[in-house]
Amino acid sequence: MTLPEEGRPSEAQSADADAQDHSAATPAAGSDNPLTASEPAATGTNEVAEAPSDGPDEVPAEALDETPTGPTFADLGLSAPIVAALTEIGYETPSQIQAATIPTLLAGRDVVGLAQTGTGKTAAFALPVLDRIDVRGATPQALVLSPTRELALQVCEAFERYASHLGGVHVLPVYGGQGYGPQLQALRRGVHVVVGTPGRVIDHIEKGTLDLSGITHLVLDEADEMLKMGFAEDVEQILASTPDTKQVALFSATMPSFIRRVSQQYLNDPAEIVVKSKTKTATNIAQRYLLVSYAQKVDALTRILEVETFDGMIVFVRTKNETEQLAERLRARGFAAQAINGDVQQAQRERTVGQLKSGDIDILVATDVAARGLDVERVSHVINFDIPGDPESYVHRIGRTGRAGRSGDSISFVTPRERRHLATIERTTKQSMTQMQLPTIEDVNVTRLTRFDDAITAALSQQGRIDEFRDIINHYVRHHDVPEGDVAAAIAVMAQGDQPLLLGPEDEIRNAPSRDRDGARGDRDARDARGGRERGQRDTPQGLAPYRIEVGKRDHIGPGQIVGALANEGGLTREQFGAIRVFPAFSIVELPADLPRGVTDRLASTRIAGREIDLKPDRRGGRSGSQDDRGGRGGARDDRGGRGGYRDDRGGYRDDRGGRGGDRDDRGGYRGRGDDRDNRGYRDREHQGQRRDGDDRGGYRNRDDRGPRRDEGDRGGDRDRDSRSDQGGGDGPNGRKPRWNSTDHRTRRTD
């Protein structure tokens, strides 16, 4: 069955889409409705064979039959009130994952579902859970864990829609970023289903405000994403806190070892259901990508908007906060832009979409969830300001252009460390993207002059008004003895205001190092004199500052848990994290220096591993001890080339530059360091010992251990200023060159 494009109920049915804190769900190619991506399969057993995936992680097995056989939701054994709600919404035919999972869960069996986002798995677990809810109870009977607050809200909304005919089913979302008051009040009144993020659920468990003794159903939605965000220990703690008799459904796009272990330890003989995802993109959409650093995305977008000829445009970002911020910045630069996100009321959303259709605005900044089902013919361009993490989200996004047989364009901003997402998308969609270059100053100036000419030509066509102003200008020329050309130029200055018409050399953008598709650097030597990889600037936002949190190695936490907790509680994206150092008793995290007061207050009360982190600015510049402890090595070391303490020019903290693990594709943003590298990070004073030869970066040393300065071969010593020239550091003649080759001179008109 194919639902009509307008008014379809796909938002609720594929409500498991990941949005705003990570990539959102998308339907398969050629359809905006996940129900049409893969039709139901007839099956006489709850065991469903695996199918090879077209995605980045293949699970070899026999594919489920995708030929529609016609079962309805009533045929799956759902109760009449739920079927009535689905009929009211407009659902008729179950998707493949729904047809296989619902009867299995109704039979009381545990399930492991391997399916990409956008396959309709929210309904696959929500419908059988609701079918077994006892509305007479007052304590939670079902718990759904989601990796992000946005997904939790979306799943909660889906539960409420499906339960509309059950009468009295109460569903509560619990997530970081919301005050405890409303959640506590709802829990006291009584709820049947709790949908929450692991961090906030743990908080309620430890406070004694969430009673899990009556849980009969537990769902892990997008378990692999929770693992990536550092919630592994939280998930296991929650599983261990619930009754052993509960039914468990685990859904994941991939099956890493941790997920496999959880399924073996906490699930009882689960049925494994795998859905093959077929993803492809339309051939009438030109797909390009731009390699750009996070900090330069807004300037890069501005140049593209100036140079590209477009009708309407949708710019996709990850979070709802970013939609408002980016739309405001674009309006400040003279573009007609508005934002829509999950918090926008439906009436306002309809007005904004109507403005895009009518041409009152040209740019819509949106999240994946807010743009689902959007069909505006005049959208000629889609910009992935933040590239999605999964291919199906990408397909959904670019499917907003190229409508009604028209051609379309998509441009994806890719930071160097996101090249793996690019490769995954290309491999899954079986289409390659063309790398584009950032428009140069010359390109922008030519475009501006052309538009200026066009504006003059358009004004000259208004003959009546021209005659009126001609008399005024002639009067001025006669009485002031000024050439007409000078008067025209003065009028242009009045019209232009303080904004210069043309860009100058000072408007040049410094970009991240260009790389070829294999990741090789194209604008500098790959190796330096030490035989090691040349160090470059980190690809992190400008204006980071060190913050201290009161959890560390003794709490058995690593950078992953820190990123997951702070991202969920503070609404932060991974690009807003800089270096993270984990010490025994505390950790230092680089975050934006201009974090709003409300965010810092919220983060201060966040709990990681059961401890309140008490986040606050680190006044000692990220140093782990006093100068006495460090042998006087802290502070600003002007005589040593500014190599101590917090180092803006190189990013990160000196003490922990040895940890090379984690996500290091471009040395930028959050870098996960292995916690077990005692010989390369913080070292206890009793174990300082002598400095080892070679590439030893052991951080915590006293003055006596410093040894002679070495210029090459040893990464442990500090080099003098002259030794930095081979690294391209600094701002002098040997400093880094701009990474985008742009024309520095102003474009001038020639007659």
TrEMBL record:
Keywords: ATP-binding, Cytoplasm, Helicase, Hydrolase, Nucleotide-binding, RNA-binding, Stress response
Organism of this sequence: Pseudoclavibacter endophyticus
InterPro entries, per the entry: CsdA_RRM (IPR034415), DbpA/CsdA_RNA-bd_dom (IPR005580), DEAD/DEAH_box_helicase_dom (IPR011545), DEAD/DEAH_RhlB (IPR044742), DEAD_box_RNA_helicases (IPR050547), DeaD_dimer (IPR057325), DEAD_helicase_DeaD (IPR028618), Helicase_ATP-bd (IPR014001)
Biological processes annotated in GO: cellular response to cold; ribosomal large subunit assembly; RNA catabolic process
Broad EC category: hydrolase
Domain DEAD-box RNA helicase Q stretches: 71-99
Region (Disordered): 1-74, 502-548, 610-751
GO MF, one example: RNA helicase activity
Name of the protein this chain belongs to: ATP-dependent RNA helicase DeaD
Feature: compositional bias, Low complexity: 12-25
Biased composition (Acidic residues): 55-65
Positions occupied by motif Q motif: 71-99
Function as written in the Swiss-Prot or TrEMBL entry: DEAD-box RNA helicase involved in various cellular processes at low temperature, including ribosome biogenesis, mRNA degradation and translation initiation.
PROSITE patterns given in the database record: DEAD_ATP_HELICASE (PS00039), HELICASE_ATP_BIND_1 (PS51192), HELICASE_CTER (PS51194), Q_MOTIF (PS51195)
Family matches, as SMART domains: DEXDc (SM00487), HELICc (SM00490)
Chain ranges of the Helicase C-terminal domain: 297-445
Pfam families: DbpA, DEAD, DeaD_dimer, Helicase_C
